[in-house]
Write a structure and sequence with these properties.
The complex is a heterodimer of chains A (691) and B (176). Chain A has 691 residues and is mainly β. Chain A contains 8 helices and 36 strands. The termini of chain B are far apart. The chains are: A mainly beta (691), B alpha/beta (176).
């Protein structure tokens, strides 16, 4: 009877919600789209070109003018692709142009579009899966995230932040390189399934003042101010600040559908805000970079048994760093770079619990660390290359605290410190005219764990021009982090396990890359085997605990095709199949879609004035912790983009989940919900002006 | 769901057809058309010690230019006709004023540079790392525009004279 009542309430509510939303949508359309298109049409008329520019015009152009001509790049010839074909890995690159064309708002949007990767969201954090591997309770510990080579994974949770808590505004990103496969032979811990390297823009991309503002669904608004300048003495400077706020939406969870818990509606608890700062100075081989970001997100899902529909439960993540790097290229053949950095991370979680009485439980983590790195590259003979490096990291503070506000009661106050040192070498040898051997290894020493050597070898063969075959073997490992080892909330939901061992992985990959005129094709297959996997489990008493759960193996294939037309059209299509299995009884692996398909296409509508980027993403069903499957999803996102209106203004309008599909991502152990519902159709309007 | 998959398949099919009608109405310049014109322009800013009857551009290795070199082949720059050559081996490089070394030669770049040492050839490339290896002018793409880096040490070691006007436009690499 009760259930029936519940459904009626739900239906009523959703009808109300729908009608208000529809009204909101019309409003958005009228307010934003009408001026947008009228502006573009006025501008398109105004900027009536002095006829078509032909190659003959080009030939007579003076060199200064030539430097300003925009070009359509050719696949397989630009500098990134050269590096891709020689690299001992399968690499995907997302450029600043892709970010604009497809309306990416954060790293999660970017990574969603990368072949073989998938991102889930529980309305608190984003979780990244690669090769079908994504364990509930894991805060992206198995991907290494770098900003201009600076390691971003913090020293408490090892988190690679891919949501709005990522330290950098995407507008400051020149490109993002996703390097698949274990990277521990160069980078040490965390580079388990891959490395994501974010490369920032320099002052040559942004010169002068640039202001950007955007407005989106649920009162989301974002502002950015950036100033870049290159001085006469060669000093390059970039300063930027961003702030964002979103009211979020009212969310319905059927698991909480009872009169005591607002009939399952969580109202006003999806709020999110962040601010971030970035600065970079470059002069004569020196590069000084400082960044800081802080994000607060309300948790609307009632996770960890918190009081449902209360806006007190939220998490704040703050992170900052200073990085000083010196680079020197010696006469023709040698390169040396040295880096020193200091990092700060703070997590502040507020969880309203009803013991009773209602008590605010606080979860605090503070991490501080510094480190130094040296990197040396040299040529051996005419064609062989050797790189070698040293790294030292000192975790000054690794603090975790869990306590109740009032009455004050401390459940955990854990202070740690640790250090690690690593040394690596990698050589690239031309062993025959068309065969390249890339071989390397890294040894790491840890304060609390035994050292380990991680090798990697790749055979790169060019049977013909613009065709590359790569056979890659690599090992990687990850030491358990402070959270997995020592965290407990007083054995209420989670207990510690200081006896954890590191986990290791072995990966085999076969990659075929081919460039045919404006086509790029890539076909790859992988197999991996994980040993003593660190995984969150529920013990006999129902407490969450991290344990080494034995072996797991995964395999998959991936196909990718990219094409660019000289008319300005471009497109990318990918399909991947992946499967993960536990080698032990009782170890179920879910949380991965067997099939992933992605399509990105960009079309110019009015030449060089207005373009449209369409994105289609398909994922097959994922199994949640209850052993049931969600329905998978197929989403369409669209962005209309008009750049350099009167040379100074960029406008874009994006629609995410165009067909308003209902879909969900698997929940984790802290959720009552087996699946967490995701966003329906949302909008964003963005304007950027250069002074 | 089915409609979406259909859309995916249809959009996928777009890959296999050439949008011919659309091609005519909007045209960005091809990267290599622009690079070809850059090469021709270099003759305005560079002086070679021993003047020849023609300006010659040589493409070494597998050419990324396709048909783009046609724009400049036969063109007159400072009273001389420009001619484009495709030498098959390093021995045929002596008559070149500008030598464009393709990225296909990136694993053999040092022997190629050794071979042209003393020949007074302006070496040009468009491969990451070439300038650091000693190639005099190296193109790169930044914000959709063709830019170039200059290795001044390599130029100084030759008898080629590059005007300061050109040096100002490039980015210096490999020391002062």
């Amino acid at each position: 009877m009760r259930a029936v009542e519940g459904t009626t309430i739900m239906n009523d509510n959703s009808t109300v919600e729908k009608s208000t939303r529809r009204r909101g949508r019309c409003f958005v359309l009228q307010v934003f789209l009408v001026p947008l298109f009228s502006l573009i049409s006025i501008w398109a008329l105004h900027a009536a070109e002095p006829g078509h520019r032909t190659p003959e015009d080009l030939a007579t152009m003076p060199i200064e003018e030539l430097m300003g001509v925009e070009v359509s790049t050719v696949l397989g010839a630009s500098r990134y692709e050269q590096r891709i074909s020689d690299a001992p890995a399968s690499i995907s690159i997302i450029t600043s142009e892709d970010i604009k064309r497809y309306g990416y708002r954060n790293m999660a949007d970017v990574l969603h579009s990368v072949p073989g990767l998938y991102v889930t969201y529980d309305r608190n954090y984003n979780y990244l899966g690669s090769g079908g591997f994504l364990r509930q309770g894991d805060y992206n510990t198995r991907m290494l995230l770098l900003v201009d080579g600076h390691r971003m994974n913090n020293n408490i949770y090892d988190t690679a932040t891919v949501g709005n808590e990522f330290i950098l505004d995407l507008d400051l990103v020149d490109r993002i390189e996703v390097i698949r496969g274990p990277g521990s032979s160069l980078y040490g811990s965390n580079a388990f399934f891959g490395v994501i390297n974010v490369i920032t823009k320099g002052s040559s991309h942004i010169s002068g003042l640039e202001l950007s503002a955007e407005a989106g669904s649920f009162d989301a608004n974002r502002q950015r101010a950036t100033f870049g300048r290159t001085f006469g003495n060669g000093l390059e400077m970039l300063l930027s600040a961003t702030r964002y706020h979103s009211r979020g939406q009212s969310l319905y969870y059927k698991e909480y559908d009872s009169p005591q818990t607002n009939s399952g509606w969580s109202d006003g608890n999806d709020r999110e805000s962040y601010s971030s700062f970035f600065t970079n100075f470059r002069l004569a081989g020196f590069n000084v970079q400082a960044a800081y970001g802080s994000r607060t997100k309300n948790i609307p899902t009632g996770a960890w048994g918190t009081v449902f529909n209360d806006d007190g439960t939220k998490s704040t993540d703050s992170q900052g760093y200073i990085d000083v790097k010196y680079h020197k290229a010696f006469e023709g053949k040698q390169d040396l770079s040295v880096r020193v950095f200091y990092d700060y991370y703070r997590y502040d979680g507020k969880y309203l619990l009803d013991y009773p009485p209602m008590t605010m439980n606080r979860d605090l983590a503070v991490g501080k660390w510094w480190g130094t790195e040296a990197f040396y590259k040299t040529r051996i003979g005419d064609s062989h290359t050797l790189v070698a490096g040293l790294e030292y990291r000192d975790n000054l503070v690794q603090r975790q605290k869990n306590y109740d506000d009032s009455p004050y009661a401390v459940y955990l106050d854990d202070n740690r410190g640790s250090y690690s040192a690593g040394a690596y070498a990698q050589g690239e040898f031309v062993i025959a005219d068309k065969v390249l051997l890339n071989i390397g290894a890294r040894y790491d020493h840890y304060k609390d764990f035994s050292g380990r050597l991680n090798p990697r070898a790749a055979l790169i063969y060019n049977p013909m021009e613009k065709t590359t075959v790569k056979l890659i073997y690599g090992e990687a490992y990850r030491i358990p982090n402070a959270y997995e080892l020592y965290y407990t909330d007083g054995n209420v939901t989670q207990k510690a396990n200081p006896a954890l061992d590191p986990e290791t992985i072995r990966t085999y990959e076969l990659v075929l890359e081919k460039y045919v005129k404006e086509f790029r094709l890539s076909l790859s297959g992988f197999y991996y085997d994980v040993y003593s996997l660190i995984s969150q489990q529920s013990d006999a008493a129902g407490l969450m605990v991290f344990t080494n759960t034995g072996r797991a193996e995964g395999k998959g294939v991936q196909f990718e095709m990219e094409r660019k037309w000289s008319s300005g059209f471009s497109g990318r299509l990918s399909y991947s199949f992946q499967e993960v299995r536990g080698n032990q009884d009782g170890m179920e692996f879910g949380n991965f879609p067997k099939h992933l398909a992605k399509l990105n296409a960009f079309a110019p509508i009015i030449r060089n004035k207005l373009g449209a980027g369409i994105e289609v993403q398909y994922a097959s069903a994922q199994q949640n912790l209850n052993g049931t499957r969600d329905g998978g999803y197929a989403l369409v996102n669209a962005t209309f983009l008009s750049e350099r209106i009167f040379k100074r203004l960029d406008l874009s309008f994006s629609i995410y989940n165009v067909f308003d599909r209902k879909y969900s991502n698997p929940g984790s152990r802290e959720h009552i919900q087996s699946d967490i519902g995701q966003d329906g159709r949302t909008f964003r309007l963005k304007a950027t002006y250069r002074f | 769901m089915k409609t979406l998959l259909l859309i995916t398949v249809l959009l996928g099919l777009i890959f296999s057809v050439q949008p011919g009608s659309l091609r005519a109405q909007s045209r960005e310049f091809d990267e290599y058309e622009v690079k070809a014109v850059f090469l021709a322009n270099f003759f305005k800013f560079v002086e070679w010690p021993s003047p020849a009857r023609t300006h010659s551009i040589c493409i070494y290795g597998s050419s990324p230019f396709g048909q783009s070199m046609r724009i400049v082949d036969g063109m007159k720059v400072r009273g001389k006709t420009l001619e484009v050559k495709r030498p098959a081996s390093v021995r045929g490089l002596s008559g070149c004023n500008i030598l464009f070394i393709s990225s296909s030669e990136r694993r053999r770049i040092l022997p190629v540079l050794d071979a042209v040492k003393g020949m007074d050839v302006l070496t040009v490339g468009d491969t990451e790392g070439y300038a650091e290896e000693g190639v005099m002018v190296n193109f790169y793409i930044e914000a959709k525009r063709v830019k170039f880096e200059i290795n001044l040490n390599s130029i100084r070691r030759s008898r080629i004279d590059v005007s300061s006007q050109l040096l100002k436009l490039g980015r210096m690499v490999g020391g002062e």
